[in-house]
Amino acid sequence: MHITIRQLQVFEAVARQLSYTRAAEELHLTQPAVSMQIKQLESSVGLSLFEQLGKRVFMTQAGETMLRHAETIMRHLGTAREEMDELKGVDSGRLRIAVASTVNYFATRLLATFTRLHPSVQITLDVTNREALLQKLEDNQPDIVLMGKPPKGLDLDADDFMDNPLIMIARPDHSLSKHRSIALKELTEETFVVRESGSGTRIAMERFFDQKSFAPSATIEMTGNETIKQSVEAGLGLAIVSVHTVELELALERLSRLDIRGMPIMRRWYVGHRRGKRLSPTAQAFRQFVLDEGTRQAVA
Amino acid sequence: MHITIRQLQVFEAVARQLSYTRAAEELHLTQPAVSMQIKQLESSVGLSLFEQLGKRVFMTQAGETMLRHAETIMRHLGTAREEMDELKGVDSGRLRIAVASTVNYFATRLLATFTRLHPSVQITLDVTNREALLQKLEDNQPDIVLMGKPPKGLDLDADDFMDNPLIMIARPDHSLSKHRSIALKELTEETFVVRESGSGTRIAMERFFDQKSFAPSATIEMTGNETIKQSVEAGLGLAIVSVHTVELELALERLSRLDIRGMPIMRRWYVGHRRGKRLSPTAQAFRQFVLDEGTRQAVA
DNA sequence: AGGTATAAATAAGTTATACTTATTCCAGTG
DNA sequence: CACTGGAATAAGTATAACTTATTTATACCT
After folding, report:
1. Which of B5, B51, B62 is facing A3, going by the closest CB pair?
2. pTM exceeds cut of 0.70
3. Cβ contacts of A133 within 8 Å, gap of 6 or more
4. pLDDT band for position A299 (50/70/90)?
5. What residues does the HTH lysR-type domain cover (chains A, B) (predicted)?
6. How far is residue A150's CA from residue A277's CA, in Å, rounded to a whole number?
7. ω into residue B281 within 30 of 0, thus cis?
């Protein structure tokens, strides 16, 4: 014998009305149904909750105690329902976004706009490199990821939404910086500053070099885009980066873009989530927002 | 479709184990039974509570929210059960006692002893005259009443437990105070201080006078035993009171007892409760205590 | 790739539970 | 003393909560 919410509901009505019949009416039930529920509740707690003296129904002390708990339980059920309904809307809840580090340069802009549209959504932004991001996906940590082309192996529902041109950068005073249509083989003697393995940009670069059967004479490996940019600025060597990461530096002419034949390497950004994941309305809204924003940007 | 406690129970187990199968084992159920309960809960809140990605089961945000409420609800159920069990014992709960005003003189002694035996019982003592007491019984306010002989009309389960001798008192310097075996008719010229109507002592007195075909020449009506005693002490007249109310004054010889023929009027005290009332274990214990204490006193 | 193991979903059938209607019982009331 | 209002009881029915058997899906393992 165990307590049920129905019993508590019926009990609460009887306690309020102090009448089985009126409680039954209120609940659109018959009077015997109410009697049964109360009797079951009483037998499962092992005490009388009501006593009938003459015609009137009184609550026992046990009844009063039970009523207090019944009320709080029902109140919690109510608020649970309310909070669930909240979550059904787009303008609430939590949105966990993980982005590959390169994406960060425009993800913040994207998020700023989205936050303005849906101010009460609580957003978590997690910036890591591609490899760590795949691990996080494994743990179902992010709702939505923004990254380069996802690997085939992983079960990811991903759509591309934006160009991601990879370009080669150098110090503005580099000897080739004014040249046009440079062939890769001209760079054989150059040192390349490259991202850590596990980075999407690194993978894209390697594939490009493989295709062109090119192998740089020297590479220096570094973690993070900022570090790479600073190294190139310092004259440590050349680097391949997403154009999004260096817009500012190019404009200020602190870095210059080399006009390599076959470049920019045209890649795309993807918005994705684990296949089978039940996206919350908020997450769906964000996904759609990213896709729309991508095409808008492309047109502009 | 409505939420049930069973659903919350099963949900909580799955949320903790993050596995339907293990939750089923824990609850001694089969796995499909768990699936069904979760599905029903999900459909009644209109949101997925879990999502299955690959083999692993994850909680959704809705699930996390629901879990918080489920836990508090189950905690309340638990404490409700505990408190109910408490009430099943003799040493807890509340005990509402109502006594006729005359009873008060020994009820306090009785309660003191009972409280020492059951210290954590919360006792309410309500002292009123017989008439008001019957009204309170009507409203099921007291658990137990101590009073003189209850009227036949009312549905009261009452047992007598102690003698209640009514005696006549006078000022010690009253002319009859040294006399023996006084006949009522000798008191025709006396003034009587009598309790208000509705008092048990008053009723008993009137019946006694009727039987003896005696009618006092003058009566002064007063409320409460204390007032009566003081009035007699002040020489206002004679009075009939329960011996229990004047023990102290007789011992100190501030009042004296007249030796009237046919007195003391031998009445009894009763411990009672409304017929059909479900006495709590505490109330039952008190009732028994009063009965035992009464006979003990009689023997002593 | 293909086979295997693990875990959840689905289907069908059974038992228990939550209701109903009809009736009885009980206490207060004219 | 019949009458009325209100709860209890009885019997029957629909729904919910389970079971077993089976299917489906995915990770794992050569």
Report:
1. B5
2. yes
3. A98, A99, A100, A142, A145, A147
4. low
5. 3-60
6. 16
7. no
Rounded CA gap, B87 and B122, in Å? 12
With beta carbons less than 8 A apart as the criterion, state whether A137 and A145 touch.
Answer: yes
Contact: A274, B65; criterion CB under 8 Å: no
Classify burial at A280, counting beta carbons within 10 Å of its beta carbon; exposed 0-12, middle 13-18, buried 19 or more: buried
CA distance A250 to A260: 16
Report the alpha-carbon distance of residue B108 to residue B126 in Å, rounded. Answer: 11
How far is B10 from B26, CA to CA, in rounded Å?
A: 10
Closest residue (Cα, C1') to C18: A33
Cβ neighbors of A233 (< 8 A, separation 6 or more) are: A171, A249, A254, A255
Half-sphere exposure of A6 (CA within 13 A, CB side): 15
**Is there a contact between B72 and A76 if contact means CB atoms under 8 Å apart?**
yes
Q: Rounded distance, CA B11 to CA B27, Å?
A: 11
Q: Which two three-digit tokens encode residue A207?
A: 């594939």
**CA A72 to the chain's CA centroid:** 34
Within chain A, strands assigned E span 50-53, 56-59, 94-100, 122-128, 144-147, 156-170, 191-195, 218-222, 239-242, 256-258, 265-274
User: What is residue A103's predicted lDDT score, i.e. its pLDDT?
Assistant: 86
Check CB contact of B83 with chain A, cutoff 8 Å.
yes
Dist. CA B66–CA B15, nearest whole Å: 10
Domains and CATH numbers, chain B: 5-73 (1.10.10.10), 85-162+268-299 (3.40.190.10), 164-267 (3.40.190.10)
Q: Is B219 helix (H, G, I), strand (E, B) or coil?
A: strand
B285 and B90 in contact (C-beta within 8 Å)? yes
Of A58, A87, A278, which is closest to B65 when you measure between CB atoms? Answer: A87
DSSP H/E element including B98: strand B94-100
Q: How many CA atoms lie within 13 A of B203 on its CB side?
A: 12
**Residues A1-58: pLDDT tens digits?**
689 999 999 999 999 999 999 999 999 999 999 999 999 999 899 999 998 888 889 9
Which of B271, B278, B283, B273 lies closest to B91 in space, CA to CA?
B283
Q: A242 and A129 in contact (C-beta within 8 Å)?
A: no
Distance CA A119, CA B263 (A): 90
In chain B, helix, strand, coil percent, each to 5?
45, 25, 30
Closest to A8 measured CA to CA, from B122, B4, B31, B246 = B4
Give the torsion sign (CA, A11, A12, A16, A22). Answer: negative
Asked if the Cβ–Cβ distance from A47 to B84 is below 8 Å, we say: yes
Q: How far is CA B233 from the centre of its chain?
A: 34
How much is the average pLDDT of B269-276?
88
C-beta separation of A241 from A229 below 8 A: yes
DSSP secondary structure code for residue A81 in this structure: H
Enumerate the residues of chain A whose CB falls inside 8 A of the CB of residue B62: 84, 87, 280
